Amino acid sequence: MLSNKLCSQLLDGSLTDHKTYISGTCRGYYVTVNTAENGMYIINISAHSESDPGNAALRDFIESRKNVTNQIQSVNVSNNNASIVSTRTFLIKKVPAHLNEAIMPIIDFLESNRYVSGCMQCGTQMSEVDCYDINGSHRYLCSDCAVKIESALSDKKQDVLSNKSNLIPGIVGALLGSMLGCLVYFLIWQLGYIAAIAGLITAVCTFKGYEMFGKVIDKKGVIVCVLVIIFSVFFANQIVWAYDAFKAYKDDGIGFFECFRYINDVVKLNELTGQYYGNLAMAYLMTLLGSYRNIVNAFKSSTGSFKVKKMKD
Ligand SMILES: [Zn+2]
């Protein structure tokens, strides 16, 4: 995530950069830093204290820091860990100072109030603690907790796989949802654009429609949704071209549905074939750009796939 030079400026150089995450111990406290999809930083600090059951005082302290610094977006404190979402910064050079401002006062607080650090899940200091990659987020865990988390995720996967959707209602829902996307596509076209946002809305509404009518999105649900999205982008493109043709021919008494039916002939007659396919390709590209992450995420969660991996130091 950072160069060696920048990483040495972070928390007095106590952490190591592992390219996709940063981890280490700062003054005896286990710390990991991940980047979220939206560019925010997710900082985990392992801490607990006998004199602060449930980390209530730690939570209050971090909550109060939100009033002092802009670098803390939100915080989630559990019995043995504080998970902090820190705002993003666009200048890579400023990242160490940015994160120091978020984390250092918390480390000072932990140290002066004699908190200790162990497994981020159970808090144990008795057994060895290692850094694990759990679905892309890094945490220090004892081997017992790592095994427990892995088996919980494996149980969840079995649940996901045994949860089947209702295909026919799902298809109806996906088609209804995609119509909303087509409408947005049509409206944005009238303003003279083909926008990625229309593709994103089509994808989100199609998946939502399938889920509402078909109960869950399983693997076949994802395939249905992708097919519906491909079809509806084509359909939306036909409609906007038909509407343009209708505007041109309506004085000759030709209706919209006629234009829709013969739109390919109209395109050929007016030697607009290149432009037509260019627009269609652009629409597919924009849809892909706007929605590929949704599609990938839907596919991932439909298979219940998970990852638990012990990291090397
Ligand atoms: Zn543990």
Describe it.
By secondary structure, this protein is α+β, with helices and mostly antiparallel strands. It has helices at residues 4-8, 56-65, 95-112, 143-162, 167-190, 196-214, 219-249, 256-261, 263-269, 273-303; strands at residues 15-17, 22-26, 29-35, 41-46, 72-77, 81-86, 129-134, 137-142, 308-310. A six-stranded antiparallel β-sheet has the order 1-2-3-4-6-5. The protein has a three-stranded antiparallel β-sheet with strand order 8-7-9, with helices on one face. Helix 5 runs antiparallel to helix 6, helix 5 packs parallel to helix 7 (219-249) and helix 6 (196-214) crosses helix 10 (273-303). It is elongated and about 85 Å long. The two termini are 16 Å apart. The relative contact order is 0.10. The model has no long low-confidence stretch (mean pLDDT 93). The protein binds zinc ion.
At the first level of CATH, the class of the largest domain is Alpha Beta
The assigned structural class equals alpha+beta
Distance between the termini: 16 Å
The number of E-state strands comes to 9
Please tell me how large the radius of gyration is.
26 Å
Largest sheet: 6 strands, antiparallel
Relative strand content: 15-25%
Mean pLDDT metric? 93
- Per CATH, what is the topology of the largest domain? Yope Regulator, Chain: A
Query: From the coordinates shown, what is the CATH architecture of the largest domain?
Result: 2-Layer Sandwich
The secondary-structure element order is HEEEEHEEHEEHHHHHHHE
User: What compounds sit in this structure?
Assistant: zinc ion
SS element count, helices: 10
